[in-house]
Write a structure and sequence with these properties.
Length: 295
């Protein structure tokens, strides 16, 4: 293949925020000769066509996967097993299947059993996103400067991993390879728990009596406002994250609850030094994130 082209035919199963952003990169840089898009709703398929992201659309995952060099599963995690089962009969040796799910071990457990001999499954997760869903909200710079974690199980073909890595590098990402269980553990604290806290705090406000709620909304300073942005993310996607990374999230939630109790105690007993000490350490972490270019 020439001219920076990585693939002849690419199949996107799911063309929401993540799928459409990657499809935009492929269009922009001519990484694929042909893009086939699969989704459930006519409206979504129409949008993908109107945005110029699809050469062919279908509601049948198997039709999309047939003859694609690479199949990108970009749907909520809970659908991945059924999609793998649906495409399995048409997959041929040498094809690559990858995904973008925010949890990795559960996706591997759901997808791998359906992969025929010689088909390369390379699980992946771009650590990038916004609170908006759907193909109309994607943009081609979403992955620039962000990490993508690949979690290929032992024995995955090196060439297939290299190809998926190159694809993400073309999108401007830095790529790391991690063990799937370790990925899920790390993401439980860096992403899944913070988002759960945001859902919880916004839920607390939703339950306040009407007059107080109106004032909270009127005077919401950056603290609450930032939580509402995080808590405005797609409900189905996040439902699936918690259902599929249950143990790691519960473990982090336990630690969080213990630390929160300690904070509660410090406030109750007027232990200002302990509070200040914790807040100093928090500031330090923020500075480290800025220094790492991930702010
Ligand atoms: P999204 O914007 O809601 O899009 C989901 C897409 O999947 C839609 O095109 C939807 O089509 C399609 N879909 C859903 N169920 C399907 C099925 N059974 N068969 C075929 N297509 C189906 O979602 P997203 O934000 O792109 O997230 C997709 C994946 O990326 C999730 O696994 C998530 O964990 C991961 N991820 C998300 C973020 C983020 O911040 N959003 C970040 C990193 C990773 P219809 O419209 O026709 O239903």
């Amino acid at each position: 293949m020439t001219d920076g082209k990585l693939f002849n035919t690419v199949a996107f199963i799911g063309i929401g925020l993540i799928g459409s952003s990657l499809a935009r990169v492929m269009r922009r840089d001519g990484l694929a000769e042909r893009i086939v898009v699969c989704a459930r709703r006519d409206e979504t398929l129409q949008k993908a066509q109107d945005l110029g992201l699809a050469d062919h659309v279908t509601k049948d995952p198997a039709e999309a996967a047939d003859c694609a060099d690479i199949v990108l599963i970009c749907t909520p995690i809970g659908t991945n097993g059924a999609i793998a089962q649906a495409i399995a009969p048409v997959l041929k040796p040498g094809q690559i299947v990858t995904d973008v799910g925010s949890v990795k071990q559960a996706v591997i457990d759901a997808v791998s059993p359906h992969m025929p001999e010689g088909v390369h499954f390379v699980p992946g997760h771009p650590l990038a996103g916004t609170e908006n869903s759907g193909p109309e909200n994607g943009f081609d710079t979403l992955f620039e400067g962000r990490w993508v974690v690949l979690t290929p199980p032992d024995g995955t073909d090196d060439g297939a991993v290299a190809k998926v890595k190159t694809m993400w590098e073309c999108a401007g990402s830095n790529v790391d390879v991690l063990d799937a269980a370790h990925h899920d553990w790390v993401l439980a604290i860096t992403s899944h728990l913070p988002t759960l806290i945001a859902f919880n705090i916004v839920g607390t406000v939703a339950d306040l009596e009407t007059s107080t709620k109106q004032e909270v909304i009127k005077y919401s300073a950056t603290g609450f406002r930032d939580f509402t942005r995080i808590a405005a993310q797609d409900p189905v996607m996040w439902r699936d994250v918690y259902l599929h990374n249950r143990e790691a999230v519960l473990e982090m939630l336990q630690r969080f609850s213990e630390d929160l109790s300690r904070l509660q105690r410090s406030i109750r007993w007027g232990e200002g030094e302990e509070l200040e000490d914790l807040f100093k350490r928090s500031r330090e972490i923020r500075r480290n994130i800025i220094d790492a270019g991930q702010a």
